[in-house]
Structures are given as C-alpha cells and as structure tokens.
C-alpha cells in the first residue's frame, strides 16, 4: 500500500479554498495545468511510499502513539506559492511549530516501524498541492502571486490521518491519484 500521514482541512477551509481556486482557474493558461480536486486536498506530514502489508499494523500503532503525544493546534490555509514551474500550492498559517512537531513524529513513527524515510535533511514546508504543470516553461508566478493574500478561516487540527494513495490505473490517463483515509487518531488523547 502506498501510504502517507496527513492533516485534513476542515470542510469550511476546503470550501473557502475551492472558491479561491475557481478564481485561479480563470487566469491565462490555467487550462494547461492539471488541477487537483478538493477531495484530495491535504497537508502531507510524512510520506511512507509502498508499505508492506505486514508493516501496516505496527505503523498504525506508532501513529496512534504519536497522535496521543501531540496536542491539537490551530491552523488555516493561507498564502501560497510554487515549486519552480512544476506545482502551484496553498500554504499554512497558525501554529506551524506544532505542525512541524507532528510531522517529525509521523516521520519517526515510519522509521520505528522499519520504513526508509528520506525526509530527515529536508525542511518541512506545509503545503497543499492545487495544480501540477503539464507543459514545459509555463510561468506559474501569476498563480503564486494571486494566492499571496489568501487567508482562510482557522480550524483546530485535532486528528492525524493515515492515507492510502491510489495511483491512476490504465485507462485513467490524466487523472491524479485518489486518496482514502485508512486510519485516524485524535491528537492529545
């Protein structure tokens, strides 16, 4: 199973972001991007990749412990940017240190379950992918600039989710991955 740990935004936060994305889709060349749908919007904390079935129970147990040790915190979707000419993303504002600690705990849970984690030397940048570029040399700066002032309503992050990423199969060309929660644990309980 292709798994990752994530924070899922509140329904209200998703609605607000969806309205903002509709405005982005009106920008020139927006039809050249592959836009993600709100059903897939999340903040990845730790990516585990392909996890053998026999490791999943231990990973779930370690994530439950990690969630128990972290308190709920406030977050909102705010701002945005781009990764070069590849991705347009929305950012996070609020208790980012708490989010970083939760991401560190989720990564540690993967390592302790025996998974090879390659995120130890990368700074954690909370982001929510909105669109991927499909063509070379498309300037994504206008999208990043349009997101600069966006600030959604805060919500309390109170759950750590384990997500299954299903890659598109044959006959689904052009579609992005589909995500399904396969576990969730309340923070601080």
Written overview of the protein:
With 189 residues, the chain is an alpha+beta fold. 27% of the residues lie in helices and 33% in strands. The protein contains 4 helices and 9 strands. The strands form 2 sheets. Strands 2-6-5-4-7 form a 5-stranded antiparallel β-sheet. It has a 4-stranded antiparallel β-sheet with strand order 3-1-8-9. A hairpin with a 3-residue loop joins β4 and β5. α2 runs antiparallel to α3.
Q: How large is the radius of gyration?
A: 17 Å
**Uncertain stretches:** none
Q: What pattern of helices and strands is seen along the backbone? A: EHEEHEEHEHEEE
Average the pLDDT over all residues and give the rounded result: 92
Strand order of the largest sheet: 2-6-5-4-7
Outline the biggest β-sheet. 5 strands, antiparallel
In helices, the fraction of residues equals 25-40%
What are the key terms here?
five-stranded antiparallel sheet, 33% strand, alpha+beta, globular, 189 residues, four-stranded antiparallel sheet
């Amino acid at each position: 199973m292709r798994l990752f740990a994530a924070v899922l935004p509140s329904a209200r936060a998703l609605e607000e972001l969806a309205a903002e994305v509709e405005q982005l889709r009106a920008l020139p060349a927006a039809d050249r991007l592959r836009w993600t749908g709100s059903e897939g919007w999340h903040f990845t904390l730790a990516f585990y990749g392909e996890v053998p079935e026999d490791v999943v129970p231990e990973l779930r147990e370690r994530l439950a412990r990690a969630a128990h040790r972290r308190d709920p915190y406030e977050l909102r979707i705010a701002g945005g940017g781009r990764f070069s000419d590849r991705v347009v993303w929305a950012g996070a504002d609020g208790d980012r240190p708490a989010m970083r600690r939760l991401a560190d705990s989720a990564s540690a849970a993967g390592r302790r379950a025996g998974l090879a984690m390659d995120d130890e030397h990368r700074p954690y940048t909370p982001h929510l992918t909105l669109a991927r570029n499909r063509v070379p040399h498309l300037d994504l700066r206008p999208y990043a600039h349009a997101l600069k002032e966006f600030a959604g309503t805060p919500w309390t992050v109170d759950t750590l989710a384990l997500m299954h990423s299903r890659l598109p199969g044959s006959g689904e060309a052009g579609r992005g991955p589909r995500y399904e929660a396969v576990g969730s644990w309340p923070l601080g309980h």
